[in-house]
TrEMBL record:
Name assigned to this protein: 3-deoxy-7-phosphoheptulonate synthase
Keyword entries, A-Z: Transferase
InterPro entries per UniProt: Aldolase_TIM (IPR013785), Class-I_DAHP_synthase (IPR052899), DAHP1/KDSA (IPR006218), DAHP_snth_FXD (IPR041071), DAHP_syn_2 (IPR006268)
Transmembrane segments: none
Pfam family, one: DAHP_synth_1
Domain DAHP synthetase I/KDSA: 89-329
Length: 339
């Protein structure tokens, strides 16, 4: 349920009403302060809340019921787009389409610093790279772990690029808080609710990837877990889902972009690398994502894809990343955006 307050309602009245609602009906009340209007987002069992009685409050403008199970992530709660700030000058959800680029895995100091410099040169504003790698096989490269995180931090200091990297274990949160700018929750952990609850207690941005077998509603419910804990800095990432098609690694659900933008106020990023699973598909899928209204892209770029320790087949070389960025500019402009 959403209660829209009249312009000019005092904070004192909002606090009084919020306290009364939470005590009387046992619901969580989240005030969202806009420029003029304040909205109270009620979460929990609002069945007993008497709408008519509430309308007797002269400061209440209107009341809307939210049918969907996700409340805080719902656009009805927050009609304007949310902009998530990853670092100074790097905001996801605004006019500029944010490109997060880098290798699948951090492999060495030389590698991550070289990739960081190159992606920066071609317009990426966030460095990606995995330190803890959730691999399908226990015999595959598992990542450099804490050393990888340190190397990402070094690459950040060297280039100024903020870092997004995947967290797989709540026990690592403290370490990540110091060494990265944005947590990544991978597709395999989208419904790791204990991890989500812990990340929800922090205020660091979270890039939440859609699980490859999850519906859009389940995806938004996972965002809700983060937000219910108090972390409002959530970025959604569509990275392809599993279908009967085997030609591609996953099927990029491009329709998820307009659906998510309509249902939620959270920014939406598309990862064309894990969707297509092969380098030559990255550019056309990235173009489609920008045309569909994505707020950002996550692209795997490697210094030597043929010898990458993970996901080499889908990684772009420096040259193909440069070409891709150039080809995205005209589409971004046509969408009234920048890249
Ligand atoms: C990744 O970004 O390297 C990754 C493992 O992605 P996903 O969780 O989407 O498979
Ligand atoms: Mn990868």
């Amino acid at each position: 349920m959403i209660i829209v307050m009249k312009n000019g309602t005092t904070e004192e009245h909002i606090t009084k009403l919020s306290n009364w609602l939470s005590e009387r009906f046992n619901v969580q009340v989240n005030p969202i302060y806009g420029t003029g209007t304040t909205v109270l987002a009620l979460v929990g069992d609002t069945g007993a809340v008497d709408k008519d009685a509430l309308l007797l409050d002269k400061y209440v403008e209107r009341i809307t019921k939210v049918q969907e199970p996700f409340k805080l992530a719902n656009r009805k709660m927050h009609p304007q787009d949310t902009i998530v700030k990853i670092a100074d000058g790097v905001e996801v959800g605004g006019k500029k389409i944010v490109v997060m680029a880098g290798p699948c895995s951090v492999e060495s100091r030389e590698q991550i610093i070289d990739v960081a410099k190159n992606v920066k040169k071609n317009g990426a504003t966030v460095l990606r790279g995995g330190a803890w790698k959730p691999r399908s096989s226990p015999y595959s490269f598992q990542g450099l772990k804490a050393e990888g995180l340190d190397l990402l931090h070094e690459a950040h200091k060297e280039t100024g690029l903020p870092v997004v990297t995947e967290i797989t274990n709540p026990a690592h949160i403290e370490l990540f808080m110091e060494k990265c700018d944005c947590f990544q929750v991978g597709a395999r952990n989208m419904q790791n609710f204990e991890l989500l609850k812990e990340l929800g207690q922090t205020d660091k941005p979270v890039l939440l990837k859609r699980g490859f077998a999850n519906t859009i509603e389940e995806f938004l419910m996972s965002a809700e877990y983060l937000m219910a804990g108090g972390n409002k800095n959530v970025i959604l990432c569509e990275r392809g889902i599993r279908t009967y098609e085997t030609y591609t690694r996953n099927t990029l659900d491009i329709s998820a972009v307009p659906v998510l933008k309509r249902m939620s106020h959270l920014p939406v990023v598309v990862d064309p690398s894990h969707a297509g699973g092969i380098y030559w598909m990255v550019e056309p899928l990235a173009r489609a994502a920008v045309a569909a209204g994505a707020d950002g892209l996550m692209i795997e770029v490697h210094n030597d894809p043929a010898h990458a320790l993970s996901d080499g087949a889908q990684s772009l070389t420096y040259e193909s990343f440069e070409e891709t960025m150039n080809s995205l500019r005209s589409i971004a402009n046509a969408m009234g955006r920048e890249i």
